[in-house]
User: Fold Right handed beta helix domain-containing protein from marine sediment metagenome.
Amino acid sequence: MNTVAADDKVWVKSDGDYTETFAIDTVGTEGNPIVFKGYDSSIGDGGKVTVDATGLTDGLTDTVSGNLFYVFKNFKFTNALSNGVNLDGDRAIFKNCEFNTNGLGGAAAGAVVGHGTMFEACIFSGNTGDGIQADNQPVVLGCRFLSNTGDGVQANNGGAIIDCVFYNCGSRAINFGGGANDWIYVVYG
Assistant:
């Protein structure tokens, strides 16, 4: 990923599983994010790319801090020993992604993310920890949390959760960790 720059768009074909840890080591900008979109046979068909991290610690991680400004659309992050996605950086967006059966090496989340990360129309299922574990203020829109061992969403300092479905969470559906000056919006449609 070290050859992408702000405003780049990368189409990724789902013609097989990607079996490596992807590391974000460059950043986009607020108006010009770096976008990765999966597809099956023709660009834009909505097919999902599988990042199968079997035997690896994480499926997606970062080596930079601060605002990432990355968008991932149509990806499956699965089978990591720890977290499907593990980002220290802030402001990533995940659309139409799946985070499944991560934490095979112990309790871990589908996604561990920094401040202001957004998830839209994503599925979190069968992870051995939380579906999402966020440092601060995630925005979660129209997602499904199914049979995760921990919380559906754990957000340490507030956030917005709108039109989501929680089923068979091992702990709580939503856990706002009690940070100071939290803002919390939970809207059920």
Summary: The longest strand covers residues 67-73. The chain has a mean pLDDT of 91. Residues 9-187 form a domain with the Pectate Lyase C-like fold (CATH 2.160.20.10). The chain has one domain: 9-187.
